[in-house]
Amino acid sequence: MTEPNYVVAPPPSVSVAVRDSTARFPVHRIYCVGRNYAAHAREMGHDGREPPFFFQKNPDDLVEAGKPAPYPPQTADLHHEVELVVALAEGGSDIAVEDALAHVYGYAIGLDLTRRDVQAEAKKAARPWATAKAFANSAPIGPIVPASANGHPKSGRLTATVNGEPRQDGDIADMIWSVPEIISHLSRWFLLAPGDLIFTGTPAGVGELKRGDVVVGAIEGLGQLEVRIV
């Protein structure tokens, strides 16, 4: 087969480490669920079990464990949001809830970095969240733990500290929409594909980060993700 002749150099492929393996997980798209914990919804001024809504980050926004995350421009209020991340091995559309977990490869810890001041202005103006959420280095992520090795967690403590100070403390059992429900809902809007990542939302306790801060996110069974803001 003849190699394509590109007019500019193609971007490098994006992948994430897999725990205890030299093989890597290729990333297709990144989907994120908004306000998926009741306490966090309340701290953001909302309440109730609303239908899930989604936004996206870009694959090259990922920052792997052990690498720093630069403080982004155009914000004075950067926030941390530690989340369970779902990695899909199979895609599809209109996936039934009872079939959803069969599409999952594994799970990881993710950090949804957010320009909170930019997001607040976007909300006031009824504008998209892209500049608040989908900026470079906005999605630190730990190694993916295969479900074949660790199962499909339905509960587990989720915490975040900043410079050793406790910030977030919740449980993934408190998600308003469970992982199977998220996958099912998302597949009604998008044709999901192998390599998709889903950030599933964050519990209460989100807060401001400054240059030099060290965020440590932890989820029971998945270990820790440490990120320095530089």
From TrEMBL:
Domain Fumarylacetoacetase-like C-terminal: start-end pairs: 30-230
Statement: the UniProt record of this protein carries the keyword Metal-binding: yes
One Pfam family per UniProt: FAA_hydrolase
Alphabetical keyword list: Hydrolase, Metal-binding
GO MF annotation list: acetylpyruvate hydrolase activity; metal ion binding
Keyword Hydrolase on entry: yes
UniProt xrefs under InterPro entries: Fumarylacetoacetase-like_C (IPR011234), Fumarylacetoacetase_C_sf (IPR036663)
Coiled-coil stretches noted in the UniProt entry, renumbered to this chain: none
Protein name: Fumarylacetoacetate hydrolase family protein
Organism listed in the record: Kaistia nematophila
Lineage: Bacteria, Pseudomonadati, Pseudomonadota, Alphaproteobacteria, Hyphomicrobiales
